Amino acid sequence: MLTKLSEAVWLNDKVFSLGKSVTTYGNEFYVPLRTFSELLGAEIEYREPANLSG
């Protein structure tokens, strides 16, 4: 369950902190993607941008 401006989310009858609040734009919810994805079991990896300039 998500609520506007909430920093917590319920998943499988447990509450987890997102670290940042859920926001809305129009009729859509936006959540902190990294934290939310990790709660769902996804592995997040950051790669430094490659220097493509000449």
Q: Descriptors for this entry?
A:
single chain; 54 residues; alpha+beta; two-stranded antiparallel ribbon; 13% helix; flat
Task: List the topology elements.
Layout lengths: L7 E4 L2 E4 L5 E3 L2 E3 L2 H7 L15
Antiparallel strand pairs: 1-2, 3-4
Describe the structure concisely for a colleague.
The chain has one helix and four strands, in the order ββββα. It has 54 residues and is of the alpha+beta class.
Would you give an account of this structure?
With 54 residues, the chain is an alpha+beta fold. The protein has a domain of 32 residues. The protein is built from 1 helix and 4 strands; from the N terminus they run ββββα. The strands form 2 sheets. It has a two-stranded antiparallel ribbon with strand order 1-2. The chain has a two-stranded antiparallel sheet with strand order 3-4. β1 and β2 form a beta hairpin. The longest helix has 7 residues. The relative contact order is 0.19. The model has no long low-confidence stretch (mean pLDDT 78).
Mean pLDDT level: 78
Shape from CA axes? Answer: flat
Give the count of helical stretches. Answer: 1
Q: Give the amount of beta strand, in percent.
A: 25-35%
Spatial extent as radius of gyration: 15 Å
Secondary-structure-based class equals alpha+beta
